[in-house]
Amino acid sequence: MRTSIDKVKVSGSFFELNQIETFGINSHNKQPNEPISESSCCLDSKGNGVIAQNIYVHSEFVPYHLNIRDDRTTIEFNPNKFNSLDEAIKEIDNDLKQSHQFEFDWNQTRLSRLDIAMDCEMNNNVIHYKEPIKLLMKSRYRDNVTDYPHSLLYANSVWQKCTYDKGLKNMIDAEVREHFSTKQMRDEIRLMKPKYIENNIGVSSVYDLLELSESNLKQSFVSTSLKFIKQQNESVKKQPEQLDTILDLFIHLIETTGRNGRKERILTFLNTSNPDTNFFTQRKLFHQVVQEYASSKSLEEWKSRQNKSVWIKRELETFDEMYRNQNAIRQLRTKQSDKSLNLKLDEYKAKFLVA
Fold first, then answer.
1. Which of 28, 30, 25 is closest to 42 using CA atoms?
2. Cα–Cα distances in Å, from 320 out to 281, 295, 313?
3. Which partner from 191, 212, 238, 287 sits 20 to 30 angstroms from 200, CA to CA?
4. Residue 138 is assigned to a structural domain of this protein
5. Whether residues 232 and 114 fall in one domain
């Protein structure tokens, strides 16, 4: 098990630009149909403005990316691609000075993004842990399988939590022809705002990170992960389904199945309902919808009051029958899968959520 800093982004406004010949220059705005930028993105060492949207360095030999926009400089890099964080800072600073005559004041910067990663060998292939982690987070996730195979990504504007198959990603990155799922799981927390990094990890500059031992880093990873999980659990407050929304669905089902396509209609209704709504609430809402729909039709359409009453009664009886059948099948499947699910969830907690 290993905990490491996976990405660092520092920002600052104190730098000295002595040349621009070796920099990439973006002089056009990113938005289509907009005029070329006529404002300066920064000043050179003589105080002259550099007219461009931004200038940048993306080095092929030293893995980092520098970007200057509106007098704000950001440097982004992955310390894992160097021997250490300290060496990363020295190599990047040397490349800026030697290759670009660029003087950057690291002491006047603050962390604007920090990713911490934990790698661990699991008992099963990573793909088998997706359901336990989804159960733990109790929230919707973004599936970024292109960049992170077998991944789960939970994200908002200030933090992200991502779990994926690191072994499989390594094979894909190395362009291995035949790749397969592995047991090497990577769990990452990504802090996207300076204040959020300081409040959660207790650091504000890249030099503060140098003082963190791997043990401190693991403690920060675990405590922050647990905080994120708690926030996710507290934020999952499902809005109850509304009668008007369900009525629209019911009318659509009537139109597609006809009044006599009862079992198909009710099965679709049950399978598309809010999974957190219990049986009694579902039945009450369905009863209201049936009554509302029946009342919206004229007596001439029903032919008689008896036909209307019989139709409502059969709708509710069929609803009860279909729900009972579904529930019996669900209980059988749940009983078979719960043991495996809980074992994997316990393993994940033990390996990634205990300092």
1. 25
2. 13, 22, 11
3. 238
4. yes
5. yes
Q: Is there a single domain that holds both residue 115 and residue 212?
A: yes
Q: Quote the number of domains for the chain.
A: 3
Contact 184, 167 (CB under 8 A): yes
The closest alpha carbon to 151, from 174, 172, 177, 176, belongs to 172
- For residues 309-323, average pLDDT: 89
Contact 353, 121 (CB under 8 A): no
Final residue of a domain: which of 41, 74, 108?
Answer: 108
How many Cβ atoms from other residues are within 10 Å of residue 99's Cβ?
Answer: 13
3-class secondary structure, 298: coil
Confidence of residue 350 (pLDDT cuts 50, 70, 90): very high
Residues 69 and 174 occupy one common structural domain: no
**Segments forming the whole domain that contains residue 116:** 110-237
List, in order, residues 6 or more apart from 142 with CB less than 8 Å away: 153, 154, 155
